[in-house]
Amino acid sequence: MRGLGLGLVLALSCAGIAHAEISGDVVRIGVLNDISGIFQDTNGMGSVEAARMAAEDFNGGGKGIKVEIVYADHQNKADVGSAIARKWLDVDGVDAIVDVPNSAVGLAVNTILRDSRMTFLASSTASSDLTGKACSPNTIQWVNDTWATGNTTAAAMMQRGGKDWYFVTVDYALGKGIEGEATNYIEKHGGKVLGSSKHPLGTSDFASFLLQAQNSKAQVIGLANAGGDTINAVKQAAEFGIQQGGQTMVAFLLFVNDIHGMGLKVAQGLQLLEAFYWDMNDDSRAFAKRFAARPGMNGKMPSGNQAGVYASTLAYLNAVAATGSDDAKIVVPQMKTVKGKDKLFGDVTIRQDGRVIHPMYLFEVKKPEESKYAYDYYKLIATIPAEQAFRPLADGGCSLVK
């Protein structure tokens, strides 16, 4: 079943490297994420199962390579995530860390791993600093980032007439990054940002923030947050009748699991940008069906982040098989030779700055009567080509080339 991941032939460019070896005779991959908090549905144990699926599909890489998946909960705290990463590095012999939702945690892990032998597969860390000022030769960033989320979403909405904006933003690196990127695009292209409200991570009461957004009369209200924060904001916006009043709500970082949690009656009409949707094609549906049948998934469809864990883990393992090493200094350059078709993310290229580029999609959430079966939630509005969806390498991107 390896064909469900990167159906790519990795060039054996590192075959001549001396002393390439797999440390401890086993490749250990640590899934580091939020298992008990606001990202538990979009990541959580679903990400662990996705990594296990990748290891099973890798099946030793034709070389009998042993793979072990471990996991831990970073609790959305940078100090907790850092402590886990250091223990995995110094004590437990973990070779790669994957997933890591929460940009503050991801940036901390990125710093720890920079000069180590460990690879950071930042499949859920959205900060675009990972390919900018914080770039590292050990990091590969899959799925999404704040540049793509902010710029591409703003561009798509402005093309549809959304010129005036108001932001409801989570007050940490993720939200600030998304709002900053979107604001920059909006103002450069003739739009206006009429205001912004900042809220703490894990907010339950959005009334004051939403009323300010409603009173601003902005055409578009941008939710620059994620997980439970976005769900709570959307639910409360429905109570205020914000969309019925003519304002459009855009969720910058929303997943199919979030839509399922709030229900179509509440979520209908929302605009959102995704890198992956389980019902896009036969390959994504086949993966989703297998994922839904995994222990503890109980029929749940995978999020884009969980698909990213699978794709990045399998790409990493394929590079390990190609090089015979699990050292980041050997594996990551091998991963950067990848260019081709990924069955979950379409045409992909892994650039020299570690950014994986692929198409992005603008969706609108269906009305309840438009949904024909479980998790049939999105209708495609626009496809953004990979070269437009992500920050160009030469435009403020990481100058790292090795």
How would you sum up this structure in a few lines?
By secondary structure, the chain is of the alpha/beta class. The protein has helices at about 45-60, 80-90, 105-115, 145-160, 175-190, 205-215, 225-240, 255-260, 265, 280-290, 305-325, 330-335, 385-390; strands at about 25-35, 65-75, 95-100, 120, 140, 165-170, 190-200, 220-225, 250, 270-275, 340, 345-350, 355, 360-365, 380-385.
Describe this structure in words.
Residues 1-20 form the signal peptide. Residues 27-366 form the Leucine-binding protein domain. Belongs to the leucine-binding protein family. The protein is α/β, with parallel strands linked by helices and 402 residues long. The chain has 13 helices and 15 strands. The chain has helices spanning 44-58, 78-90, 103-113, 146-159, 173-188, 207-215, 227-240, 256-262, 264-267, 282-292, 304-323, 328-335, 386-389; strands spanning 27-33, 67-73, 96-99, 119-122, 139-141, 164-170, 192-199, 220-224, 248-251, 271-274, 339-342, 346-350, 356-357, 360-365, 378-384. The strands form three sheets. It has a seven-stranded mixed beta sheet with strand order 7-6-8-9-10-14-15, sandwiched between helices. A hairpin with a 5-residue loop joins β12 (346-350) and β13 (356-357). α2 packs parallel to α3, α4 runs parallel beside α5 (173-188) and α11 packs across α12 (328-335). Mean pLDDT is 91; it is low at 1-19.
